[in-house]
Here is the input.
Amino acid sequence: MRFLLRRLVFYVIALWAAITLNFLLPRLMPGSPLDGLIANYGEQIRSNPQILQQLKASLGSADEPIWQAYPHYLHDIATGDFGHSFAKQVPVGVIIGNTLPWSIFLVGVGFLLSFIVGTTLGMLAAWRRGGITDNVATPVLMTLQSFPAFFLSLVAVYFLGLKLGWFPIQHAYSNDADIGFNAGFAADAMRHAQLPVLVIIAISAGGWLLGMRNVMITTIGEDYVAFAHAKGLSDRRVMTQYAARNAILPPLTGFASFFASAVGGLILVEVVFSYPGVGLTLQQAALGHDYAVVQALLLVLAICVLVANFIMDCLYVVLDPRVRSA
Amino acid sequence: MTVGAGDLSVGLEPVEAPPLGGAGAPRTRKRRRLPEPIRLLLANPKSCFGIVLLCVIVFAAIAAPLLTNSVPNEPDALPRQAPSWEYPFGTTDQGYNIFAQVLYGARVSLGVALVASLIAMTIAITLGLLAAYSGGWVDDSIVLLTNVFLVIPILPLLIVISSFLQGTGPTSMALIIGLTSWAIETRVLRGQALSLRNRDFILAAKVAGESTPRIVFGELMPNMLSRIAAGFAFVFVQAVFYEAALEFLGFGDANQVSWGTTLFWATNNSTLLTGEWWHFLFPGVAISLTILAIVFINYGIDELSDPRLRRPETKTRRRLFAMLWRPRAVT
Here is the structure.
C-alpha cells in the first residue's frame, strides 16, 4: 500500500503543477490573450462588464496582482467554477459534462482493445519468434504505428467509410437518433464508434506488441520457464501463466508516457471524425480563442491522464506481488 | 574507452561485407571507411532501409527546385486534377501543384522538427546527465519535474499555447515543440548516465579535480553518444508528428507551405467528400515515410545493441544473406 500512497502523493503534486501551469500560461505569453478575445467577441464582452472582469481575473491582465490572483484561481478550480464559454454561452462545466463521456467511451474501448490485441500478439510473436504472427503482425502493426493518427483516420474515413460504405464516417450518433439510454441509441452510438476505435487500435497496438515481444523474448530464456517446461506443463500454460505473466510488467510501467501521448492521437481522431468529445471541443475552442473552455479542457485531460495512471498503478499492484510486500 | 561504438557491436559477428553506402567507393583495401556505428547500421538490413529512405526524403527536400518547375503556393494548373504525368500528385482546388507542395513542404516540416528536436535534446541531455551525476536534491527535483511533464498530455498543451500565442509560424512552433517534448529522453538519458557515473574513468576525473560541467559534458556525454543519437531520432519523430498535427488542426500559419498545412487545406476544403484522395494522401504518405524511416533506423539500433532481439538465422535467410553479401566481400 505504501507504493500506492507514494504514487498518490505524486499525482497530487502533478495535479497541482498542471493547475499552476494552466494559471501561468496566459500570463507568460507575449502579448495579451485578452486582446484576441476582445477581437473575437468584442460586442459580447463590452456589453457585459462583469464578464470582462471575470476574464481579466482568469487571463491575468487584471489589476489584481499575481499573488492574489493565484489563490483566487485555486479557489475557483476547487469549487468547480471554470468560468463561462463565450462561443456557446454556457458554463464550461456544462460543456465538460456533455463532451467528456464521449471521449471516455472512445478511449476506454479503444485502449482496452488495443492493449488486449497488442499484448496478445506480442506474446505470440515472442513465443514463436520468426513464426507467422511475428512475421505478419509485427511488421504490419509497426508500420501502422508510424502513420500519424490524423492521416490514418483520413485514409480510414475515405476508403472504409466513403468508398466501401462499411462504417458511418462522422459524428457519434445519427442526426435523427433519439438521444437517451435506450437500446436503439446505444446500437447507433456503437456503430459510429467502430471506425474511430479501429483507428485507435491500429495506432496504439503496435507499441504494446513491441514492448511485450521484446520483454518476453528475455523472459523466455529465464530458468523458471525452462523449469516449467521440464515439469511437463502444457505450452499454452507456460506461455500465458509463466512467461507472459512476468513479461507484461515492464510495458505497464511505460504506460504513463504512452497514455499522455495517446491523448494527442485521440484529439486528432475526434477532429477527423467530428466526434463530439473533449478533443474536438478543445480544438474548436482554441481556434475561437474561447479561453475559459481551453484552459478547463486542458486541465480535464491532464486529470484524465492522472486517473488512468493511478488505475494502472492499482493494476500493477494486483499483478506484481513484489510491489505489495515492499 | 569508447562505449559509444562498443555498445553497438556487442555480440555482433564480424561484418565482412562493406556497407551498401560504400558501394560507390573504389574497392581497394585502403579506401576510407565510414565511422563504425554508421557502418554497423548500414550492415543491418532494417536500419539500412531506414537510412536510405531518409536520405531520399532529405535529398528531395533540398533539391526541390530541380525536381519541379512549379512554385508551391502559386496556382499553375487547372484545379482538382487527379495525378498525371505532368502533376504526379495532382492539384488542389486552387490549382496548386501538390507535388511541389510536398517537396517544398518537406523543408519546413523537417526544418521545424530538426530545430525542435535539437532544443529538446539539449534540455534532455543537460537535465538528464546533471541529475544522474549530481544526485541528491538536484536529482530529486529534476526527476519530479520530468515525471510531471511526462503525465501532462503534450498535444493539448501545444494547442493551448498556440491558442494563446494567436498564430504560430515555423520558428515559434519549433520553439514550443522543443520546450515541451524533452521529458521522455531526460528520463532515458538519466537512467543510462546513472549506470556510468560510478565507472572508474568518471571517478578518476572527479579525483583529478575536474569541474562538474567538464565531467558531465566532457567525460559522461561522449560515452553516451549512441543512446543520445537514438534519443534524437525518437524526439525527431515526435516533432515531425506534433508539427504536422498542429498545422493539420489549424494552429499553424496556413499560408506557409508544409506537409501539415497541405493536409489542413485538404480537410478544410472537404476534399474527402468530393473524392480528391490525392490531396490528403501524398502529404500524409510523406510524413509517414519520414517517421517510418526513423523507426526502422531505431529498430536497427535496438537489434545491434541487443542481439537477443535479432531473429534466429534460418537456413533460407542465411543462404539469402550469403547470396546478397558474399560477392561484395571478395575484394
